[in-house]
Design a protein that fits this description.
Helix content is about 75%, strand content about 0%. The chain has helices spanning about 5-20, 25-35, 40-45, 50-75, 80-95, 105-110, 115-135, 150-165, 170-185. It is an all-alpha fold. Helix 1 (about 5-20) crosses helix 2, helix 5 (about 80-95) runs antiparallel to helix 9 (about 170-185) and helix 6 packs antiparallel against helix 7 (about 115-135).
């Protein structure tokens, strides 16, 4: 199936933003690497901010689908409990070549204004991630906490930041799993 020029722009921008950040990646570089004409860019997006928002929405759909798939696979096919599935998935991600941390956290750092479209798209992703974690938390047996998904969100986000900053890889996920067990089952 042929990729549309719009999709080509978004996918190229995603790759470049992941590598170099949002502000440091210029429109001219995106156009050069995508092979798309400037007029096509502006026929599809009114601004770089609109392109960034489209990139973040695409990345969010991809990440959520990946996470849901990995959680299901680890729980159903491997028999992992929900916490082991979650932190095992994160640990595997942390070990991937080119792991640089959370794309959405980087977006909020580059666009700290909560009204900016990029910041809003990153916040939307966090809400979607929270929903996935709520679903996972429904499968936790005998958890005494009223909202374990909030704790899981903090632990996954923290483990991701630590893995990115220190290069600790899956050890960050393993420590977060230990913390989750201690917190959720005191």
């Amino acid at each position: 199936m042929a990729v549309s020029k719009r999709e080509q722009l978004v996918e190229t921008a995603l790759k470049l933003f992941c590598q170099g950040g949002f502000h440091a990646t210029g429109i001219d570089r995106i156009l050069a690497e995508s092979g798309v004409a400037k007029m096509t860019l502006y026929n599809n997006f009114t601004s770089k901010d609109e392109l960034i928002e489209a990139v973040l929405r695409l990345k969010s759909r991809t990440v959520i689908a990946w996470l849901e798939g990995e959680l299901a696979r680890r729980q159903e096919r491997e028999g992992a409990d929900p916490l082991e599935a979650l932190f095992g998935t994160y640990g595997a991600w942390f070990e991937e070549e080119g792991f640089r941390g959370c794309f959405f956290a980087r977006a909020t750092l580059e666009f700290p204004d909560p009204s900016h479209p990029a910041h809003k798209a990153a916040a939307s992703h966090t809400r979607k991630l929270f929903s996935v974690l709520e679903g996972l938390a429904e499968n936790l047996e005998d958890c005494p906490l009223p909202c374990p998904a909030e704790h899981l969100l903090l632990l996954t986000e923290g483990a991701t930041a630590v893995a990115a900053k220190t290069g600790a890889g899956k050890a960050s996920a393993e420590r977060a799993l230990e913390a989750a067990k201690a917190l959720l089952y005191p």
